[in-house]
């Protein structure tokens, strides 16, 4: 009985080893490659960040004066065909201000502030939006250039990256006397600078030219945006 059990155990171990070796061989019977594609794309939209701020001795006066500037600012944006859904008040505050003298705090007034994020989907409107906004007391913090539909470029680059990876895998397979089989596994990522920022000093320096030459609009260089796509693919070998 004991000998039969040992014999059965040996048979089971042999069968198990056979299947394991077959599985390992199947796992090795594939090729893993990576593919890459990159493109420099001209931005077609911009996001404007900035704020309106008013100070007064009385809180209600600061609030009311800011409300007037906010209404004027929105009127300017709507006049440039910027839809309401692209105008976002990201922060609003009304706070007291103090001065400190000889370790004593003294109330000096109140400051009301509204921070904005404005999407400008037509770059031809950007210069006019900046110039007219500055004219109604808007302070520009920065401008970020971007793409209205980044996914379109990413999808195109992913197709190119897959083609790049498949081509390399096919070359290696042919060199080894094999042919490329079905796709076993795939992973991907898209990287690159999603936006290109122009900081406050650059924007305000450009806008300051209005004081010297009233008819000269603010012009910013959007440059290009780099979009990258990377894929990791595993193919079966036949």
Offer a concise description of the structure.
This protein is α+β, with helices and mostly antiparallel strands and 238 residues long.
List strands and helices in order, with pairings:
Layout: H1 2-28, E1 30-41, E2 45-56, H2 59-79, E3 87-101, E4 104-120, H3 126-135, E5 139-146, H4 150-175, E6 180-191, E7 196-199, H5 200-207, H6 209-212, E8 225-237
Antiparallel strand pairs: 1-8, 2-4, 2-5, 3-4, 5-7, 6-8
Structure description:
This protein is of the alpha+beta class and 238 residues long. The chain is 40% helix and 39% strand. It has six helices and eight strands, in the order αββαββαβαββααβ. It has helices spanning 2-28, 59-79, 126-135, 150-175, 200-207, 209-212; strands at residues 30-41, 45-56, 87-101, 104-120, 139-146, 180-191, 196-199, 225-237. Residues 14-26 have low confidence and may be disordered.
Question: Strand content of the residues, in percent?
Answer: 35-45%
Task: Name the helicity range.
Answer: 40-55%
Low-confidence stretches: 14-26
Q: Please tell me how large the radius of gyration is.
A: 32 Å
What is the CATH C level class of the domain at 45-147, in words?
Alpha Beta
Spatial order of strands in the largest sheet: 3-4-2-5-7
Q: Kindly state the number of beta strands.
A: 8
CATH structural architecture of the domain at 45-147: 2-Layer Sandwich
Q: Looking at the structure, what is the overall shape?
A: elongated
- Termini gap: 47 Å
What do the pLDDT scores average to? 85
Structural class: alpha+beta
Look up the CATH topology of the domain at 45-147: Alpha-Beta Plaits
What characterizes the major β-sheet?
Answer: 5 strands, antiparallel
Would you list the SSEs in sequence order as H and E?
HEEHEEHEHEEHHE
The number of helical runs is 6
- Within CATH, the superfamily of the domain at 45-147 carries the name Protein of unknown function (DUF541), domain 2
Organism: Succiniclasticum ruminis
InterPro entries: 26kDa_periplasmic_antigen (IPR052022), SIMPL/DUF541 (IPR007497)
Protein name: SIMPL domain-containing protein
Signal peptide: 1-25
